[in-house]
């Protein structure tokens, strides 16, 4: 290739203007080698690109509209590159499918069908797919680039604390639960497919690609072969070794359990001498006790991992949602046992009106004569039950009975009355909403008996489930975390009469729950507007400037910008914000997905969020409203509308 052609190729690879600057800096405008060295020093070219140029492999440095920046790795499915879109300048992970798979028309057909569905998935714990196309190198998929490391690499280099492992697997379970609800089964869950980004969030990778084809009756089908390649034996469920074409979510639960085992021990649960012997161990060997290698694993967690590794699907948790819920409970127990927790003493309760299911502000306490209450507490976790019982010490009670299941609570209520039932959302035999309905049916107008008040304790991600209280004709829901004061107020409203509180200081109230008061008691008071920290999320820089200018008119001064929902998640992980203002339509993670993630994350569950959007379709905005946003405002962001929302926030 002539020098002029080489220089032209280099000019095409780098951003406009970079080539001319490099020519000047090199002092040798016609020397390709000197120009490349200058471009590498300035960061305009990567070492991978420079090496490709030196070999004359220009074709390998561009795939479709993407410039290839680096080679990240390779596997049975193909090779993954770090790439950048030429016009959008977005840096992505680009996966080129292996040539043997691209040559199989059945696999290609399935690949395109999977990509169409995968493109619809938007969840903060799933690596997103942006694009798919075909070039000279074959079919390729463009995905979100996760700046971090996979869990296999992390576990190999460090002993992972139990709490950190629980958080990582809980993230993966959230992503997989969402995928299962959309009809996807991953079929190749393993530590290498679980990626932790720089902010500590774990994302599931390769969703859809690992899914083998339906049976075709041809054992030599390329699709079946692809499925066989993709199933990783160290983490493969017993049923996948028998028939990998008709798997359900239980297979992912098993593989996630095996990955969990690896994360804690740095080794898979079974390791035979060869492929076949490992498969046999998965199918027949006793389930190993993880506490032999990690005695610091609590019994409840060890039991969950054992259940996830059940030989038969029926032996495992019924759904990934059940796994997620159990991990959240275990994480809460670990946090309670390991360190004091600081609570925001601001309003925490959410009240449901008895009629149409609207959320009410939770008006004044009843004015009836105060009297002690009898309580039935339904909580399967001994640790959580202990916390609630200690909070109950802040009020006058005549009796507190604790049960682990809904059936036990119903039997007790049938034998003797109670003023109020306090229940967790997830019980061993039913949900808290199911229990509420059962209580209403057994005591009410039909039996001339008075139904006890019902207080449902929920996590931040369960607000939509708690809405079932309205249809059950019950009173209210109390989201975690809460203080003894907040519990006492909620009990009074649920019982229908004022429950007398014991006299105690704020510090005493907190110490009842085994907690310490905030280091700065003034943190319970909303800071002046000039001190509020506000996160502004929009992929349009002018739109962010307009939002900031409007908020500045109202006295706000401290802003952090995020160009996308994914950036906002990372920002919220680093810093606590007093208000988040977000656009709806954004490329990496839209506003709806961002709000859902923030509401599911305990650290941001109560942060006020304002949605700014041109969207008007109810099917898009109603799910956002149900996530309890402070307001939805048109894109012009009118100052009067914003002021009204801010005034409601206090």
Describe this structure in a few short sentences:
Helices cover 41% and strands 16% of the residues.
Description:
The chain is α/β, with parallel strands linked by helices. It folds into four domains: 3-144, Phosphorylase Kinase, domain 1; 148-338, Transferase(Phosphotransferase) domain 1 (Transferase(Phosphotransferase), domain 1, Orthogonal Bundle), CATH 1.10.510.10; 350-518, Rossmann fold, CATH 3.40.50.2300; 529-649, Response regulator (Rossmann fold), CATH 3.40.50.2300. 41% of the residues lie in helices and 16% in strands. The chain contains 26 helices and 21 strands. Strands 11-10-16-15-14-12-13 form a seven-stranded mixed sheet, with helices on both faces. Strands 1-2-3-4-6-5 form a six-stranded antiparallel sheet. A five-stranded parallel sheet has the order 18-17-19-20-21, with helices on both faces. The longest helix has 20 residues, at 162-181. It starts with a helix and ends with a helix. Residues 212-230, 338-368, 444-448, 460-473 and 504-525 have low confidence and may be disordered.
